[in-house]
Amino acid sequence: MSVSGEWWNASLNASRSLSIWIPYEERVVEGFVLTVICMVAVFGNTSLWLVVMRSRVLRTTSNALVLCLSGADLLVSIVNMPVTIVTIFRGENIFSDVSCISLGFINMVTFVASVMSLAAISINRYISIVRPLKFKQIYSRRNTLFVILGVWIISMVLASPPLAGWSVYSYLPGQSFCFCSWKSSESYTFFMVGVCFGGPCSVMAFCYVQIMREVRRSRRRISSEDPSSDDDIQLKVSTIAGAVYSHKISIAQRKRRQRRHEEDVKLTFSFLVVITLFVISWMPFCATMFWSIYSSTPVPRPIDMATLLLGYFNSCCNPIVYGLMNKRYRWGYKRLFKNC
User: How many CB atoms within 10 Å of residue 198?
Assistant: First the structure.
């Protein structure tokens, strides 16, 4: 048998019996907190889908990417969280080897899909703000569908190596769920951190730095224009009806473009908040991941579990952010709940 095969069998055998004693009070608190997070996440993300699907104004290619991210959060809250809740209350591993591998794979896919969706949204916002003339050409409905399919295909591909022996999926007693056993392969750990965290975060950083620069340039252009010059021109040509009409139309068009630009900027900043929350939510999880690999002292369960709960909490944040920061989403929520 190969070395990877021996490690695979050893890990599966260990996952069957691996368990730690968890005080009853601790399990109740953890289970209750995660139950609340799960309910809020299901309600929030389901409402987000209903709001977008029922509003013609919100059915845009940009919001299709929002639904892609929300779909990953919804999958986490429907599949991953309930299973983890049951395991916490039971206080022991309740999974067969095949079930644990399947759940570990799903957990990894949803995590990677969330990061890749955020990167895709960042690129979308970059093109919308910095290259607006190319936006409609690039983000047609067909191309947007390809982007969404690409996000999920890439996520499944990146989550597949443990199924082939490069690392393994097993039960993690410190967090009461099935996920990748990072100790089984340091190389896969660094690969995932680089490709699934460092890479997308670099793309996001580049996009938003460029967006910030473009916003500053746009504000300087607007502030440098003399508002009185438009009135002077309009007075000078007031005797020429056609010129007056044309001039007013050009002013109205410019105001509409400026309004759309401002709406795009506001939407972009709401996405920036979403990305910031994602990084804050999952960074402690990544820190404990490296702690478990390189420290001789195991991660205390309260810390281990707190990082997972914080990561799960991110799944219920995004619908709230959209409702607070975006006027159209806020209007959609009011309309949805008013009709309920």
Answer: 12
Using DSSP's 3-state secondary structure scheme, residue 168 falls into coil
Q: Which residues pair with 170 in a beta bridge?
A: 179
Distance of CA 185 to the CA centre of its chain: 26
Q: Is the pTM of this model over 0.85?
A: no
Domains of the chain: residue spans and CATH: 3-339 (1.20.1070.10)
In order of 33, 100, 214, 234, 340, the CA distances from 159 in angstroms are 28, 14, 36, 63, 39
Q: What is the pLDDT of residues 112-143, one digit of tens each?
A: 999 999 999 999 989 988 888 899 899 999 99
Task: Tell the residue number behind the tokens 């991953």, with chain if given.
Answer: 80
Nearest Cα neighbor of 281 from 327, 250, 312 is 312
Phi, psi of 18 (to 5 degrees): -70, 125
What is the rounded distance in angstroms from the CA atom of residue 141 to the CA atom of residue 64?
9
Considering only 12-21, 44-53, 249-258, 307-316, which range has the smallest mean pLDDT?
Answer: 12-21
- CA atoms 145, 147, 151, 154: torsion sign: positive
Specify burial of residue 138 (Cβ count, 10 A radius: 0-12, 13-18, 19+): middle
pLDDT of residue 14: 42
154-180 mean pLDDT: 92
Q: Around Cβ 124, how many Cβ atoms within 10 Å? A: 23
